[in-house]
């Protein structure tokens, strides 16, 4: 005997092996068509029959079920609840065969729009209104499936559907996975073996891998767009009121930056005192005088945390109008937070001479590295006939910078680290700074990458005095018990360098205290610290009572954590786009490029001319700085990969950089952070 039953929503047939009980208590040990041993009770069985054979019945019933007219079946069914055998007679007649009855079971079970399930083998017609609504939904679903299929074929053919063009980026970066458009995209990708980004680039929905990287970054960090809202401005009356209260400094300050810098947030001044003593001023743009904690501009800056730098563009933390108000641009007195220190004739800092005050600082010049760097040397600084601006001031700053550097190296050695060499590094060393210039030539973007070695006199002057300013700021905050965002580096491991709200040493820089404070126009950590420093400058020992962030402020701890993660994400984005443009530089001339690389570690090498790191397993067993000539080809701008073939391997290059490379993390190097 065979039994018809339902399991997991499917109609199945089992062959009886043994039976027990009688009537409603009857049960059977049976074997399903798949060979599974089961036990069935009388209430679970829809139909019992002796012939035909189970598999033949199921095969025939499956075919018949596809021919059943569900609308006619609904018309035939009674209003009240009914069983399988009852409706079989209505649809097929009194002599309905077993395969026909089983086909109806399959049809009824799979037609919830037409029939409600009332129990095992029991059904009831759906009300007319619900039937009509269900049929309309099925029709819509079928139309969606048909449209999905059309879109899928268009995508496979390389044509992005016109109806989807307005939602292309949403499909890629923040899709609703229940939509027909997304299902069509994924189905097309499955069929072609491409990723969604690859397929959409091929179809022209996004213009390039660069468009993809930018879209992913903006979706993650600027979901409402990177542009600043026009309402984000400084209140003119508040700005004027603050400026009116500031004393005018009796200095002529100057900044030193490259020509691409628009957020000029630090400047230096040198004032002659008596007996060969000079007063050095480090002047920091002071948006913290007008921007207050929790106001609209603070919320904006906190959401962004930092200016985002990448080749060809940047996303500023503050609006351009606010930057213009506080940037230390030449030809005007600017609100600034100034730190002054006196140095003797030998360039040594005089104990107890440190001062800090908020003031208006006249900016005499914005010096540009490109125009001045090659003119400034030890010899020219001593030569009074040298004809370039601020020569005397630069000479004094350079002499003191050498002392600051030497003092830091003593601390580094005490910390068990190697001393860093002062001055220009070996020309054979790998360059660490690069200028990316992206221009459109004949409708095609081309990139030019120019290396720049660190370590010039101007680099060192700026680096040492900014490091000193950050160190002095950290010491002032620590000595007065004011919490701030301190940058610390101690020990080893992944958390060696971190941001914290309590003071601690920075071993890599050779400092007891270090708090970023020299870039408040582009780093939120510096703006936060500036608020605390302004409170200290205005209120002295009572600053803790009025500072925006009191001791043990939980919000400040949250800012430290948020800044760390955000700053790291921005740095990773910058690295990704630098790699993209490096690969573009390699691929832009169509032919494979022959270049030299240096092996660094674990098979990872860097191209000498550009900051591109590539895996070259063949060099994994060679010493660090082994030089190799390679051919780079097969550039994939979406995966950011390239094929490398070695032509020849040379002896390792051992530049001075090898013995003097700083263990300080790159973001802490203020030579490049000004």
Into which percentage range does the β-strand content fall?
Answer: 15-25%
N→C terminal distance: 89 Å
Describe the largest sheet: 5 strands, antiparallel
Total strand segments: 24
Share of helix among residues?
Answer: 25-40%
Query: Count of helical segments?
Result: 20
Mean pLDDT: 88
Report the uncertain regions: 657-674
**Radius of gyration of CA atoms, rounded to a whole number:** 38 Å
Spatial strand sequence of the major β-sheet? 4-3-2-1-5
Count of folded domains: 3
Question: What can you see in these coordinates?
Answer:
The model is unreliable at 657-674 (pLDDT under 50). This protein starts with a strand and ends in a 14-residue tail after the last helix. It has three domains: 2-126, no CATH class; 130-206, no CATH class; 236-569, no CATH class. The protein has 674 residues and is α+β, with helices and mostly antiparallel strands. The longest helix is centred in the C-terminal third of the chain and has 34 residues, at 554-587. α3 crosses α4 (98-109) and α15 (391-414) crosses α16. Helices cover 37% and strands 24% of the residues.
């Amino acid at each position: 005997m065979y039994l018809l039953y339902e399991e997991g929503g499917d109609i199945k047939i089992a062959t009886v092996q043994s039976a027990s009980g009688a009537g409603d208590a009857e049960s059977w040990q049976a074997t399903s068509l798949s060979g599974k041993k089961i036990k069935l009770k009388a209430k679970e069985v829809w139909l019992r029959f002796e012939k035909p054979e189970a598999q033949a019945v199921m095969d025939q019933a499956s075919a018949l079920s596809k021919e059943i007219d569900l609308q006619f079946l609904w018309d035939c069914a009674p209003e009240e609840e009914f069983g399988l055998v009852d409706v079989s007679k209505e649809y097929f007649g009194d002599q309905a065969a077993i395969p026909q009855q089983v086909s109806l079971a399959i049809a009824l079970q799979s037609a919830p729009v037409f029939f409600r399930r009332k129990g095992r083998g029991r059904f009831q017609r759906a009300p007319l209104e619900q039937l009509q609504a269900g049929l309309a939904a099925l029709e819509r679903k079928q139309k969606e499936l048909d449209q999905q299929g059309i879109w899928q074929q268009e995508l496979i053919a390389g044509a992005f559907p016109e109806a989807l063009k307005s939602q292309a980026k949403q499909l890629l970066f923040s899709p609703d996975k229940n939509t027909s458009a997304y299902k069509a995209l994924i189905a097309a990708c499955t069929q072609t073996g491409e990723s969604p980004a690859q397929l959409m680039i091929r179809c022209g929905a996004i213009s390039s891998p660069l468009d993809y990287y930018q879209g992913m970054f903006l979706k993650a960090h600027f979901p409402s767009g990177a542009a600043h809202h026009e309402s984000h401005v400084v209140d003119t009356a508040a700005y004027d009121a603050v400026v009116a209260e500031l004393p005018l400094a009796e200095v002529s300050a100057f900044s030193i930056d490259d020509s691409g810098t628009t957020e000029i947030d630090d400047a230096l001044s040198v004032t002659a005192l008596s007996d060969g003593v000079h007063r050095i001023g480090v002047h920091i743009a002071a948006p913290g005088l007008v921007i207050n904690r929790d106001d609209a501009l603070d919320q904006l800056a906190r959401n962004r945390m930092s200016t985002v730098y990448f080749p060809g563009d940047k996303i500023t933390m503050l609006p351009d109008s606010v930057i213009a108000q506080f940037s230390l641009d030449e030809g005007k007195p600017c609100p600034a937070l100034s730190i002054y220190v006196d140095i003797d004739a030998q360039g040594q800092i005089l104990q107890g001479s440190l001062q800090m005050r908020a003031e208006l600082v006249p900016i005499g010049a914005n010096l540009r590295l490109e125009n001045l760097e090659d003119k400034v040397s030890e010899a020219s600084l001593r030569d009074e006939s040298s004809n370039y601006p601020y020569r005397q001031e630069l000479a004094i700053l350079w002499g003191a910078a050498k002392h600051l550097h030497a003092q830091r190296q003593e601390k580094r050695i005490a910390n068990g680290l190697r001393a860093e060499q002062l001055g220009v590094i070996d020309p054979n060393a790998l360059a660490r700074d690069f200028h990316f210039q992206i221009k459109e030539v004949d409708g095609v973007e081309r990139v030019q990458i120019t290396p720049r070695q660190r370590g010039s006199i101007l680099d060192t002057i700026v680096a040492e005095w900014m490091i000193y300013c950050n160190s002095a700021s950290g010491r002032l905050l620590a000595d007065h018990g004011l919490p701030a965002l301190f940058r610390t580096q101690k020990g080893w491991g992944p958390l060696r360098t971190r941001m914290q709200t309590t003071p601690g040493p920075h071993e890599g820089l050779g400092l007891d205290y270090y708090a970023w404070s020299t870039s408040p126009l582009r780093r939120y950590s510096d703006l936060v610290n500036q608020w605390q420093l302004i409170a200290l400058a205005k209120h002295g020992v009572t600053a803790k009572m009025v500072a925006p962030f009191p001791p043990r402020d939980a919000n400040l701890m949250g800012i430290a954590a948020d800044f760390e993660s955000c700053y790291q994400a921005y740095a990773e984005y910058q690295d990704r786009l630098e790699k993209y443009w490096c690969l573009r530089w390699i691929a832009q001339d169509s032919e494979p490029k022959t270049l030299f690389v240096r092996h660094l570690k674990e098979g990872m090498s860097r191209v000498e001319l550009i900051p591109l790191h590539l895996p070259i397993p063949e060099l994994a067993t060679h010493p660090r700085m082994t030089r190799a000539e390679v051919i780079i080809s097969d550039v994939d701008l979406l995966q950011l990969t390239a094929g490398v073939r070695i032509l020849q391997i040379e002896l390792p290059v051992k530049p001075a950089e090898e013995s003097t490379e700083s263990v300080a993390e790159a973001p802490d190097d203020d030579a490049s952070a000004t």
